[in-house]
Amino acid sequence: KKISDVLQKSAPKPGVPADLQNLLTQHFGENRSVIEIEELQLSDSCFLPANDLTHSFSSYLKEICPKWAKLRRSHKEKKSVVMLVLCSSALRCLELIKSMTAFKGDCRVLKLFAKHIKIQEQINMLEKGVFHIGVGTPGRVKALLEQDALCLNSTKYMILDWNWRDQKLRRMMDIPEVLYKHLYMLYSVYSLLLLVVLRSWSVKFSFC
Question: Which parts of the chain span the membrane according to its record (predicted)?
């Protein structure tokens, strides 16, 4: 059966923390020890309520981040963003950037995808300017993290574009090449979380 055939018969439902954690366990379970797999498990307190499919993107962000204006004003760090939004493609990134106008206010948004944008351009922008929101694809975000061009010191929210489906009815996690890059990028983030969460750094995951 094709993915689209299966998904067409399934009713849309919001993502939950178990969805993401099960994907990580299934993908890394064969080449990680039991202890390493256990360390990948984050508590439910690390996750915000998912979009119940009744919200627009802007209204959903307003609900989960009511103090955005204060966070935006206090953010001064280069090479980092307060909110990181992950999507399946460059076109979807552009759609979300346009749709968050009512939420973002007076802030700078950085496009973190490969289409028509060289990675060196993004590295230069991160080094020279302060950006509040990054919207990108797992592959490019993973590459920037690996080159230390993007850090998560100031990141408070990681939004996964979980519910949206493309023309073939595939969600972000139903596309093999996106899933692979996404999981390895998240593995790096999870490892970082486990190292610094005890140092009072907090980042919240959310499914939009």
Answer: 178-198
- Which amino acid would we find at residue 172? M
Q: Mark 110-143 as b/e (b = at least 16 C-beta within 10 Å).
A: bbbbeeebeeeebbebbeeebbbbbbbbbbbbbb
pLDDT score recorded for residue 80: 92
pTM: 0.80
Q: How many angstroms separate the CA atoms of 182 and 86, rounded?
A: 9
**Region for residue 148 given its phi and psi (left: phi exceeds 0; alpha: psi -120 to 50; beta: otherwise):** left
**Per the domain annotation, does 25 fall within a domain?**
no
Q: For 162-189, how does the pLDDT look when each residue is reduced to its tens digit (9 = 90+)?
A: 777 777 777 777 776 666 666 666 655 5
- First-to-last C-alpha distance (Å) of the chain: 27
Total count of domains within the chain = 1
Question: In angstroms, rounded to a whole number, what is the distance separating the alpha carbons of residues 163 and 92?
Answer: 12
* CA–CA gap between residue 71 and residue 54 (Å, rounded): 26
Question: Is residue 36 a part of any domain in this protein?
Answer: no
Tens-digit pLDDT profile for residues 78-100: 999 999 998 888 998 999 999 98
